[in-house]
Please model this.
Amino acid sequence: MMSRNPHSDFFSRRKISVIVFFILTGLIFLARLYYIQIIDHRYKIFASSNIQRIITDYAARGLIYDRNGELLVYNEPYYDLMVIPRQVTSIDTTEFINLLGITLEQFENRMLAARRHSPFTASIFERQISRDSYAVLQEKLFRFPGFYVQPRTLRKYPYPIAAHLFGYVGEVGPAIIGNDPYYRMGDYIGISGIEKHYEEVLRGRKGTRIVLVDALSRNIGSFQDGRYDTIAIAGTDLYTSLDVNLQIYGEKLMQNKRGSIVAIEPSSGEILALVTSPSYDPNLLVGRVRSQNYRNLQQDTLNPLFNRALMANYPPGSVFKVANFLVGLQEGGITVNSRYACPGFYRSGGITVRCRTHPQPVNVVSALQYSCNTFSSIQFRNTLELPKFGSMQEALTTWRNHLLSLGFGQRFNSDLPYELSGLIGSSEYYDRIYGPRGWRALTVISLGIGQGEIGTTPLQLANLAAIVANRGYYYKPHIVKAIETPDNLNPEFRDRYYTTIDSIHFETMAEAMLNTVEEGTGRFSRIPEITMAGKTGTVQNPHGENHSAFIAFAPVDDPKIAIAVIVENAGSGAAWAAPISSLMIEKYLTGEVKRRWFEQRILDAVFLTNE
Model:
């Protein structure tokens, strides 16, 4: 029997240990290599970033024109200074901060933020450097490895007008980045106005380029002849419905006044001018000064950021008699033959509604012509108390539904962001206040003269004028006429919206509104050789002087423009809003204003005070 050699066992175990050691060592290296190459990209990024640089080519946003092809918004080149922190080694910090005009503290804070973002990838160090500053910087940039310039464009406005319509562009926030994979940190997006609504049309598509750089961060050519590059595609141009000359003129007339002007082409719903005053130069919200300027505008007591044309809710006053008379005629509360005397007031129970002195008795045409509150109150009460309505709730709901069909109490939901719906009181509203049996026609009689629980926007009032001009229908008021080319009309707003009022009643209202201008409360604002139909309004204001209001359209037989004007704290509609409307219509239809004395009176008027 043979015995086991102890030396042989020792060498066998040693051999196995060595083999296991080398296997384990190999596995460790393989695992580390797998981690570095597959899981941890830092080394790969660092290696490639030493010779390659990925540059985003930002697409130029689409241009914006007026209805006649006049350029309103274009792009101007600017540059962002980018930094890759890991590549920033020994640089002359003093020379660098002097070149940029920043402090050492700003430099250190920005570098810290860039490292937190990523030491190996680029982030923005200095935003929106102008073309002139870039020319100086570019000559010396090679001295500062890790820094390079990325071109982009910013908006420019040749006319300091229509700021609320255009809106503005700003840096995209984290919430949008998280919900939309297109956007990355440092991208820009439309925040308001046209820029917001048509963001996907205007923004175009970003491109990327991979370039090779040397040790001094100088571009030495494209990577693999641009095989992996993508081309930036410029945004699509927009043609607005604005008439730039009319918009400029409207903003001129509204200087030193608080209020708005909305002018619409009745046959299309295209907005010809949308003026909100006070306003601001849209160039203020572009570039590095945007944030500070925005704060300044926010703190301005005149509230220039507030879009009164779309967001201000006014009791419409007597201009609303047009809508109320239409409902009364439709439901039978009055007829064209109804006639009532006016003793200078309407009184019933404890309610008194005062009226001015005017010829009488009045029918529906002359009542509108002279803005008779007595006739308005009688017809409104008659309509709500018609026997065919089984309850006051049913009567008011019928009245309200007609008004909704006229565009009140709801948004148009067109291409005008942040539009408000206004208020048309419902029967449920009054039930909550008074109880189902606690109110009647006299309770809400102020609605008959456009006061009380009612709020309208200037846009809605201009649309009412357009509906009468069209004799019973409207197109959604909108601002973009065509997309890409002037003849490629925007298909979004081609539908007609018919009201619940028969067209014959609009003929009656058109006649009454014509008489208002020719011989009634608006006669002071007649336009030589142009027929204008309109309605004055003096809106009661519990916080100060009454507001001046007017709606109109012209020419009467072939309407080209419908308009609404509100001048806050100016008093009579005939004295101020009607003349402004008259001048706007004359400017649009004839191209010039001949009544210089008439115009100068408006230009000299001041109703704007800081509060």
